[in-house]
Amino acid sequence: MYRLPKGRILSDKAQFQRVYHAGRSYANRFLVLYVLRSGELDGKTGFAAGKKLGNAVVRNRVKRILRESYRLHQGKLCSGFALLLVGRKALTDAGCGEAQRAFLQLCGRAGILKEEPVQEEGK
Question: Does domain 9-106 have CATH number 3.30.230.10?
Fold first, then answer.
């Protein structure tokens, strides 16, 4: 459940462009989430950090944080979507916890979170 195999990551430029251009975007201070309802790219996710964020070390750190946020919460997401997560400048100074909260907030706004059953007290 907590694995992120290479086959589930958007790999080529055409796939990134398709999600970027045809997908719907949701943004907050830390990241931008592009969501595309897709059968062909179902379950695939891409991670990006532009050169404006800093040097390669900073960009790779941002992508690691995005990957970890997705990896830990992928079980909470509905299937049938391709995602693209793009880091923003505020994420360069943020921790993994803040990134995870930002990711879940955007997933909730996008409506791609599974409904979790409500547990009754005493049972």
Answer: yes
